[in-house]
Design brief:
This protein is α+β, with helices and mostly antiparallel strands. It folds into 6 domains: about 1-75, Alpha-Beta Plaits, CATH 3.30.70; about 80-150, Alpha-Beta Plaits; about 160-260 and about 370-435 and about 710-764, no CATH class; about 290-350, Calcium-transporting ATPase, cytoplasmic transduction domain A; about 450-470 and about 590-710, 3-Layer(aba) Sandwich (Rossmann fold), CATH 3.40.50; about 475-590, Calcium-transporting ATPase, cytoplasmic domain N, CATH 3.40.1110. The chain is about 50% helix and about 20% strand. The chain contains 25 helices and 30 strands. The strands form 6 sheets. Strands 18-30-29-28-19-26-27 form a 7-stranded mixed beta sheet, with helices on both faces. Helix 1 (about 15-25) packs antiparallel against helix 2 (about 50-65) and helix 8 (about 235-265) runs parallel beside helix 25 (about 740-760). It holds the Pfam family E1-E2_ATPase.
Length: about 775
């Protein structure tokens, strides 16, 4: 059972985190998460004792924040469906199909990915699916009669060979016609025209029946038939031939682009070697269950997430992380689906079903990224709806008005109008732009960067402020001892020894850092141990009373200390009421942090750090990285408030927040673009962020921005190319200079060039 509640009056992100932790520990609660920004609690319960569990949840929430009002939220579970539109290559038709499908009752959202020929749907009730599916098939048939709607991917044989035969045969008859005169020549022209363009004519007739007049098949048919009528038979045939060849080349280019993008995302495993008794059985990864044992041989992909129970190897993780260095793994290590085993044989116990695996989530997010469309895409889709009718109207005016006013023959003006009809199809724009953005998302994925929508990729071009969390983002999040200072002639090793013994039973990261530095502990020496929350540790080691903690603890016990030590987190040590020394601990700055900050500043981006750390630690990191500004001592809710203040200063640009994806979820969600760092294996991070950097390299922010810049450049190159050539041809056609050859180039030729240009994005 899944339940959601609205927590009215929730104002403390730190309190929300405490509530979430305690609720998760309740018996019967499978999972719980609090969205601080939206003030909602979502819980998954695997028991029928709902009333008892709810009482416990209410008790926990009110014990932390007594003024909260808890109201249950009605959940209407949405279902996602994916259909394959086999043979769909017309982006203009795809936009029309998408628009009509969104209007079907029961469909909450619909988006067509022309690159993968997928229609991604969100519906509100499984019961209505068959009715929805039948309506979708009718809509698709209305716009594209030859496109088939499938619920699963199927291999389709192309008609390329048949198309080639008809083109060659039609061309031969066309050339042969020039050897004859009069009626025989005309018959050969007509025959070659029908052989070359029969499918264009057939589609035009079908579309007219379905009420689709202004599509490219109808326009091309009218233009060429009109050329026949006014006596331009050779040109009518040659234009249809050029158009058909161009369309074939365009389809090949689109298919090549699809393959290029699929190659970037080729991380879905094909099979799993399942242990059945003492034998191996090759099965579909979807058929493997949690707890099953699988074997991965050298050279094979890891098919599911799991834990190694036998063997060791080196894994290529580049498909998910973009990291070229191999990762060494041994028994007990976690491995993820999509990794490639480079050596040895691994026996793995499966921990997640394939549909819940990291690789499947990544694929679903990347393939569904086009649902969040960039402003440029939305603009071109709207533009395409008005562009064709306007050009057709201009063609009609050119055919009728000038010959009447100037008292000239209609034929030359009709010919010029026919050129307008050929140029009026907006496919070059509509297909190349989503293809460009999807290619950019694929290129980012290849580099270990998961972009959850083309709108976020486009927004990266307008960033003028970058806000960073400190721990785990700018720093490694791995504490180390920077220095040990001793007082009163005490040896430094003795200071470390007392601190290590006092911290032995603590799970705090600082305690673990000290214990790691010291080594083995003789537990028999620890007589007493007491943790003083917010201050430190009080312990009895041998016959000595030992205090280890912050300055507040020492002051509280009346112990005089020195505070003029190195910058860092200070752990003071006192024995039998006497101060003996201080351990300074630091969090190392990432190697690529300085380079990243420097490049951002060169790009005119203001760099700011938000941290919960003390002023001296924050100041030290900010100074080393030459940050423009920093704010310290902030709780999670205060980070949100500070970000909102900074948003007022950003002017017209975009603000990005870069954090670790879990602790910083509220502020990541609040930013224009939320980026989660080092999120491989972190489900919460992938859900919260708009962009996820799958490894721990902060420099990949620059990689993402460079890909965004290249994508924008190529997309706008395509827009300028298409509009310039089409407008130019229309202008010169108005003056009688252009012929239909130029018009066909302005249609399919430009579309072909735009598609080929879009493929460049996938190359890095």
């Amino acid at each position: 059972m899944r339940k959601e509640f609205i927590l009215y009056g929730l104002g403390c992100a730190n309190c929300a985190s405490k509530m979430e932790g305690k609720i998760r520990q309740l018996n019967g609660v499978k999972d719980a998460s609090i969205d601080f920004v939206n003030k909602t609690l979502a819980i998954d319960i695997d028991t029928d004792n709902y009333e008892i569990i709810f009482d416990e949840i209410e008790r926990i929430i009110l014990s932390i924040e007594p003024d909260i009002i808890i109201k249950e939220k009605t959940i209407k579970r949405m279902l996602n469906k994916t259909l394959i539109l086999v043979g769909l290559n017309c982006a203009n038709c795809a936009a029309k199909i998408e628009k009509d499908v969104k209007n079907i009752y029961g469909v909450k959202d619909a988006s067509i990915n022309i690159s993968s020929q997928k229609l991604i749907l969100t519906i509100d009730d499984e019961k209505n699916w068959e009715d929805i599916l039948s309506q979708i098939k009718l809509i698709v048939n209305k716009y594209e009669p030859d496109v088939k709607v499938e619920e699963k991917e199927i291999k389709v044989k192309t008609n390329l060979n048949r198309e080639t035969i008809f083109i060659v045969l039609g061309t031969s008859l066309f050339l042969l016609a020039f050897l004859f005169e009069n009626s025989l020549r005309q018959v050969l022209f007509i025959l070659s025209y029908v052989i070359i363009g029969y499918d264009i004519l057939l589609k035009a007739v079908k579309n007219i029946k379905n009420g689709q007049v202004f599509d490219e098949n109808f326009l091309m048919s009218i233009a060429t038939i009109g050329a026949f009528i006014i006596g331009e038979m050779p040109e009518a045939v040659s234009v249809m031939l050029f158009y058909k060849v161009g369309e074939t080349l365009q389809d090949l280019a689109v298919e090549r682009s699809r393959k290029s993008i699929k190659a970037l995302l080729d991380i879905r495993p094909d099979y799993a070697n399942l242990m059945v008794g003492h034998e191996l059985k090759r099965v579909n990864p979807d058929d493997v269950k949690i707890g099953d044992i699988i074997v991965v041989k050298a050279g094979e992909k890891v098919p599911l997430d799991g834990i190694i129970i036998a063997g060791n190897s080196s894994l290529d993780t580049s498909a998910l992380t973009g990291e070229s260095v191999l990762k060494d793994v041994v028994v007990g290590d976690e491995v993820l689906a999509g990794f490639i085993n480079k050596s040895g044989v691994l026996k793995i116990k499966v921990t997640k079903e394939f549909k819940a695996s990291q690789v499947n989530k990544i694929l679903e997010l990347v393939e569904g990224a086009n649902r969040r469309k960039a402003k440029t895409e939305n603009f071109i889709t709207k533009f395409a709806r008005v562009y064709t009718p306007i050009v057709v109207l201009l063609a009609l005016l050119i055919a009728c008005v000038p010959p009447i006013i100037l008292r000239q023959p209609f034929s030359p003006w009709i010919y010029r109008a026919l050129i307008f009809l050929v140029v009026s199809c907006p496919c070059a724009l509509v297909i190349s732009i989503p293809l460009g953005f999807f290619g950019g998302i694929g290129a980012a994925s290849k580099n270990g960067i998961l972009v959850k929508g083309s709108n976020y990729l486009e927004a990266l071009n307008y960033v003028n402020m970058a806000v960073f969390d400190k721990t785990g983002t700018l720093t490694k999040g791995k504490l180390r001892i920077k220095n040990i200072m001793s007082e009163g002639g005490i040896d430094k090793v003795k200071v470390l020894e007392y601190a290590a013994y006092a911290e032995f039973y603590s799970n705090h990261p600082i305690a673990q850092c000290i214990l790691k530095e010291y080594g083995d502990i003789d537990k028999s020496r620890i007589k007493e141990h007491k943790e003083i929350s917010g201050f430190g540790i009080e312990a009895r080691i041998d016959d000595n009373e030992v205090l280890v903690g912050n300055a507040k603890l020492m002051i509280d016990r009346g112990i005089n200390i020195r505070e003029d030590y190195d910058v860092g987190t200070k752990v003071y040590v006192a024995v039998d009421g006497k101060f003996i020394g201080c351990i300074v601990i630091e969090d190392e700055i990432k190697e690529d942090a300085k380079v990243t900050i420097d490049f951002l500043k060169k790009m005119g981006v203001r760099t700011i750090m938000l941290t919960g750390d003390h002023k001296d630690v924050a100041s030290d990191v900010a100074e080393k990285l030459a940050l423009d500004d920093y704010y310290y001592g902030l709780l999670p809710d205060q980070k949100v408030e500070k970000l909102e203040e900074l948003e007022i200063q950003k002017e017209n640009g975009k603000i990005i927040f870069v954090g670790d994806g879990i602790n910083d979820a509220p502020v990541i969600a609040r930013a224009d673009i939320g980026i989660a760092m080092g999120a491989l294996g972190q489900d919460a991070a992938i859900e919260a962020a708009d962009i996820v950097i799958m490894n721990d390299q902060i420099k990949n922010i620059l990689t993402a921005m460079n890909i965004a810049k290249k994508t924008k450049k190529i997309v706008w190159q395509n827009i300028y190319l298409a509009l310039f050539v089409k407008i130019l041809v229309m202008i010169i056609a108005s003056f009688g200079i252009a012929n239909m050859w130029e018009a066909v180039f302005a249609d399919v030729g430009v579309a072909l060039l735009a598609v080929l240009n879009s493929i460049r994005i996938t190359r890095g």
